Amino acid sequence: MFTSVASSCVRHGSRTRKLVTDALILTGLQTLSLQRTHTLFNPAPGYVCRAPAARSVSGSSVCHRDAHLPRAASVDTDQTEDFGSLSTDISSRRLFKKSSPEFQDLKYRDDDALDEEKGKEEEEELARRRPARRNTAYWYHLQCRKLIRDNKLQEALDLFSTDMLRVERLRPEEFNYSVLIGGCGRAGDTRRAFRLYNDMKKRGLVPTDATYTALFNACAEAPSKQAGLQQALKLEQELRRKNIPLSTVTYHALLKMHALTNHLQACVHTLREMLQNGHVVTHDTFHFLLMACLKDKKTGFRLALQIWRQMLKSGIRPQSNNYNLLLRCARDCGIGDPGLASGVLLSPVLKNVRRTSTNIAVMDVDHLEKQLFLLPAAAETCPEQESNQLIPVRQTEDICPSVDTGFSSAPNVLDIFEGRTGEVVSLGTVDTPSDRLALIGGPAGFLEKMKIDGLQPDLKTLTQLVDIVDPGDASLQMLLRTAKQHRVRLDVAFFNSAIRKAAKAGNMEAAKAVLSLMPQYNVKVNIQTFGCLALGCERKEDAVELLKHMEEAGFKPNIQVFSALIGRAARRLDYVYLQTILKTMKALGVGPNEVIIKQLEFAAQYPPNYDQYKSRNNYLVHIDGFRGYYQHWLKVMPAHCPEDEQAEQQREERRPRLDDRLTQRPRPTKESGDELIQTEENQRTSARRYTFDKRTK
Q1: Signal peptide span per the entry (predicted)?
Q2: Which among 418, 340, 333, 425 has a CA at the least distance from the CA of 383?
Q3: In 3-state terms, what secondary structure has residue 426?
Q4: What is the per-residue pLDDT for 323?
């Protein structure tokens, strides 16, 4: 042992000799008695422990204590040492970490600065610390779906992006994205819907049928139909490239997208792909096909009747929404060439529906496409006929049973599709919506068909019927009795449609009669009611009476009411009537919009080929006076701003829902914004005056 120690001393020099010396001293101390040991380890203040000078094993003298002890630790010069001071430079640690410059600089900083920096570090540490998870991804899915149902889409998006992703740092699932994409789609926010879809793919989540359905629905509801169509086509190409199969619901969303943004032929191609992939058509499938017929305003009603016939041949009974769409096609779309429509709708058509072993109807889409778009193969089987020709329908044994509705039903082309009638139908005069309604049985026959199918008319059905039927007391009374029979609660839109129909026909007495019926059904008038009445004010006295009734009812005439009155006056070239309306607008401070300016510009022009010095026209006697007043009126009237009107309407809608604490806050005074408002009005007036002077020159 001593040989190895000596060798170590030779290798390491003085440091090893010092370690040996200290070890010998500690060994000698351990041999002392217990009582003396207690005294040595707990010395009294000022007590100095002395030890004899130790020699190394090699005979060399031990270095004095002053060579390795601190100067303050030495008490005297006679080689006295404090107990335990021999190993002050030796630490039990063998690893040392380098200090940073910031740590070395701490001793030179003020205490306040150190406390402030320490507080900041603690705050950052608390911010970085992950809080305990209290919720799950599915819980956030339910909360977002509830907010979207309450029309709070932005709150749902904030809940997902802030609370779920940033605060709780949960990993989102596919259903979290799907419900938000569906909400954005119903709101028409296509850009945000696809942004969520891209973020979903970056996180490695696999989209499902619900995701694709929501994306196609977002494209269908896009404000810009062209942009929505482009996004949908890119998505459709992506799905085909990845060979992702679509469900029936997703195909229906794709049909809806093509129906609203594209055309009927694209819907037929999607229907063919749907049937090739083994899906079964339902009444929803034909609903979107009927929706596509609305895009064709010229022949959309004929296309809708052909699709209706195909639906009946497929063994699918129509639903209420299908009947409502058929009514809308009859109101908004034409039938095209009556002779061609007669040949297509009334000629015998070969069956294009076959049934499988499971008794499921599978239709021939190619034959349907030929019938709809009159391809050469279909044109040979459906020759054109004269428009005034009466086309007989063959008699069948299965006659449509009569339904006790109180009214006699007219010949119905819907019955012809089922082969249940032997009447004669003429397609010679199908020009107006009422003529197209008569083609499908009139209001009574249409309601009778719904009753046969086990359906009841709803408010939407009756509102569309009152907008199509001929204005008259008999049709309105029939619809009122139907509403009472089926317990349909009528609203103000139903009566406004009846008033507008009678006012456009020039029957002001019938419009006032409908107005008198509204209190009996507990329905209150609104500003749209007076706008519909304004369409029938042919004389100045009628307009003055209408404005008086509006004032008594507490309504201020808006720009739509004045536009209807100016349109009636300009159509009759009654310049006294026009000047009265302009004075009323000036008194009420209602500025003109672009539509009113165009109407007044038309009224202020002389008719072509008219010479006021050669002949006298009673309608144009006051045209010069009106032109002078119109130029003065343009200079003093403020321009109408649609944004201001929308903001005012939003404030009126939000005002009843404001909290009481908010209503007690002091509101800004009107005088604070008068200068800005007056400046904007002057700019608009100057721009309008410049436009009018330029047109006059």
Answers
A1: none
A2: 340
A3: strand
A4: 95
Q: What DSSP state is assigned to residue 511?
A: H
Which alpha helices (H) appear in 159-299, and where do they start and end?
Answer: 174-187, 190-202, 209-220, 225-241, 248-261, 264-276, 283-293
Long-range contacts, 284-290 (Cβ 8 Å, 24+):
284/252, 285/252, 285/255, 286/310, 286/311, 286/316, 286/318, 286/322, 287/319, 287/321, 287/322, 287/325, 288/252, 288/255, 288/256, 288/259, 289/255, 289/259, 289/264, 290/322, 290/325, 290/326, 290/329
Name which of 561, 564, 556 is nearest 587 in CA terms. Answer: 556
SS3 392: strand
Indicate the pairing of strand 361-363 with strand 353-355. antiparallel
Query: From CA 285, how far away is CA 271, in angstroms rounded?
Result: 8
Fold of 136-279: 1.25.40
Dump the DSSP string for 397-413: S-PPPP--SSSPPPPBH
Q: What pLDDT, on a 0 to 100 scale, did the predictor assign at position 111? A: 63
User: Would you say the CATH fold of 459-610+617-654 matches that of 136-279?
Assistant: yes
Cβ atoms 383, 422 nearer than 8 A = no
What does the pLDDT read at residue 29? 44
Nearest to 281 by CA among 193, 399, 167, 364: 364
- Which residue has 């789609």 as its token pair? 185
Q: How far is 206 from 129, CA to CA, in rounded Å?
A: 30
* pTM of the complete model: 0.69
Please tell me the predicted confidence (pLDDT) of residue 223: 92
What residue segments make up the domains of the chain, in order of their start? 2-87, 136-279, 459-610+617-654
Identify the bridge partners of residue 55 per DSSP, sorted by sequence position.
Answer: 61
Run means of pLDDT, 10 residues per run, the chain, 697 residues: 52 50 49 44 45 41 42 45 53 57 62 70 63 78 94 94 90 94 93 95 94 95 93 94 94 95 93 92 94 93 93 91 94 88 71 50 78 63 38 32 43 75 58 88 91 93 92 86 94 94 90 92 93 93 93 91 93 90 92 90 80 72 86 82 53 39 36 47 53 49
Alpha carbon distance 498, 508 (integer Å): 12
Nearest residue to 180 via CA among 202, 195, 163: 195
| CA–CA gap between residue 565 and residue 599 (Å, rounded) | 11
Q: What are phi and psi of 425, to 5 degrees?
A: -120, 135
